[in-house]
Amino acid sequence: MITLQEEVIPKIRQQGDYAVVAITKHGTDIARRLGKAFQNADVYYMSKHAKGDEQRLGIQTFTGSVRLLFPALFQSYQGLIIIISLGAVVRMIAPLLKDKKTDPAVVVIDDKGENVISVLSGHLGGANELTREVAAVLAARPIITTASDVQQTIPVDLFGKRFGWVWESAEKLTPVSAAVVNEESIAIVQESGEREWWTYDRPLPEQFSLYSSVEEALQKPHGAALVISHRILSETENEILANGVLYRPKVLALGIGCNRGTSAAEIDAVITETLAELKFAKKSVKAICTIDLKKDEIGLLEVVEANGWEFVYYSPNQLNTIQCQEPSETVYKYTGAYGVSEPAALLYSGAQKLELVKKKSGNVTISVAVIPFE
Q: Where does a domain end: 248, 280, 298?
């Protein structure tokens, strides 16, 4: 468990763009939920509420006053999501305020997770859009008091963040955002990923046109494009990104089996090579799935930690509930399961079929599934 003491607070380990902070038991539960939903968020809560899995999940705990955390968090993160009373938050951040152009977005959530309040840097800092995204995750009430915040459109830089979507490149964020704000025609191509990204209680504006493939969208002219796909686009398809942003949804489940002592370098090389062969983006990997015999496999743990992926393992009985296309008596002899990579990927993803049934490369066996979001 990573414990933050007063003297090391300035050295907090930042990995994401947002910090989620809680100090109560109920707030801790909300923070963990948000940490799972926002894969680019770092979670902080008091050590007395620790559940024992903080190190594996990358959660940081602290003792003493939460006030001591804020100077370091304030200067490090793009936004702070704080599950503490509004009055207390205002008092803690007041001495840290500098300028609305540089202050981070600050969003406050009540201890029951019923209200999400945009407190600071609503427009420039993105707190208003962050408030909506957080409220959507919690099924809470977004509270925004900025008088001019009435456009209700897609925030290009925050699009899909609550699902963990990441950009392939930030190069076109500014011009595409301008096209959205100026109500130009926008193509939205969604080939995979979560579908419930429109959070307003009104229909999608007419400026947006939905397509299920890049090829279909290229048949019509558009001012800009938002593309959600786990695929590596072809040279022709890349034309849509002349003024477009490509989002990588977290939809790939990798079933992995390996010999004991296989290095992280070998495992990572097989993953990279396999995804390239499938023309799938590594940024779209969500989890590595395996058998519980491998829960302490150093190479696997190092790969998972280095990439920020989930690590899931199943018992032989659980794996045997899935019928393997390529069952192995040898694997059953040593593990009690007729397969590892195949059933693990299917169990986690919920997919009906695998994109790659099984590939053996050196000491590693890999299967690949795409998580369906229909």
A: 248
